[in-house]
Amino acid sequence: MAxxxxxxxxxxxxxxxxxxxxxxPLRDLAETDSGTLxxxxxxxxxxxxHIASEIGARPKLIKVLGEELVLFKDQSGAYxxxxxxxxxxxxSLEYGRCEAHGIRCCYHGWVFDIDGTILEIPGEPDGSPHxxxxxxxxxxxxxxxxxxxxxxxxxxxxxEHQPPFPIxxxxxxxxxxxxxxxxxxxxxxxxxxxxIVDPVxxxxxxxxxxxDGFGKLGEIEFYQxxxxxxxxxASRRIxxxxxxxxxxxxxxxxxxxxxxxxxxxxxxxxxxxxxxTRWVVPLDDQHCIAYAWGNFGxxxxxxxxxxxxxxxxxxxxxxxxRSYEERQRHPGDVEAVEGMGLISDHEREYLVPGDRGVxxxxxxxxxxxxxxxxxxxxxxxxxxxxxxxxxxxxxxxxYRPLQSVTDDHGLLRDTGTKVMDILFDSDNDPAPxxxxxxxxxxxxxx
Length: 446
Description:
Layout: H1 2-9, H2 27-30, H3 37-42, E1 46-51, E2 60-64, E3 67-73, E4 79-83, E5 97-98, E6 103-104, E7 111-112, E8 118-120, H4 129-137, E9 142-143, E10 145-148, E11 151-155, E12 177-185, H5 189-193, H6 200-205, E13 219-225, E14 229-238, E15 241-250, E16 254-256, E17 269-273, E18 276-284, E19 287-296, H7 308-316, H8 324-329, H9 333-338, H10 356-373, E20 394-399, H11 408-425, H12 431-445
Antiparallel strand pairs: 1-11, 2-3, 3-4, 4-9, 5-6, 6-7, 7-8, 10-11, 12-19, 13-14, 14-15, 15-16, 15-20, 16-18, 17-20, 18-19
Helix pairs in contact: 11-12
């Protein structure tokens, strides 16, 4: 009996033998193939699937949401996204030829329009009833594609439920240069998406990469607005200033934050906007890509970071392709999230109050997926506004010195709350006037 008691006393020390840390992922979020809960939910939204300038004269095989698809631009300049295999004899259209309209299969020459309609079946007699029947009854699987500011977006859901394409206010910021980029991650998409509503991680992972100010935890707050908007804010003391940084997520995978390199909290800044406008897109359950625009200008990040390496640093703190030793010495987001494994065992996570943003959005995603399974269409970003959708990802730095009679924690919390109230109260203003109104109010606050 005494030995058993001693074993229990010592269980918390050197307990590796007694612990099995293998667990299950949150499958209703992590799995994105057709027919899965999350996969069906994601298929009801527009997603970027490629950088437009990287599609040339030949088709390209890609993978999105577990589907192998062929992306192409025909000679008229129209983009198509179609199933990989030709419905005739199942040859791969990645070896097809882009025609004046549509794509021609390399095997027997069938031609398909961007919407999957059969345009031509060579090798059969003119007027053949078989050709007529095929053209009337058979379609190549195809999805709508939209080019916007150098990114190609696709909708992979039921065509009859296609939502409007959302336009966010950050698309129209004056004198902002928006450059498309893509950063791949060899892990499940949820591991990458989590970080946007996790302000705590920046203080430890990114302090040496962006600025000393990132290393201050400050006061953390989380917000859920409407059914699909989630925010994490960090209000930090930097000398006589308070720096309020706002990260945002609009479900299912649209993300923005403050700047990466333009702001360090030492100089006044009023509603400086996001370093990136970004989506985390699942390729399959073990790989994803962050498709984004890097945003450069007075209210974005400095122009010198408008390079491939600069945008990699904006995205994850470090450049890609470093040696293993360099990655161990200076890990970025890639190392942090890929180190969890191809699919994290979420079941074994031990979540704390600082993870509330992650808990809130995951729970809502799961609920929306279950609602869709019951026949309830998911809310869309375009439900948030009658025209341009307001967003919040930003940096604000206000002069608010600590007074001897003031509790700084309270001052930080109060400042963060007032900044967010100003942002929220301006939601109904048209995009340019909204920014002007927010900036003027913030200047009075500071």
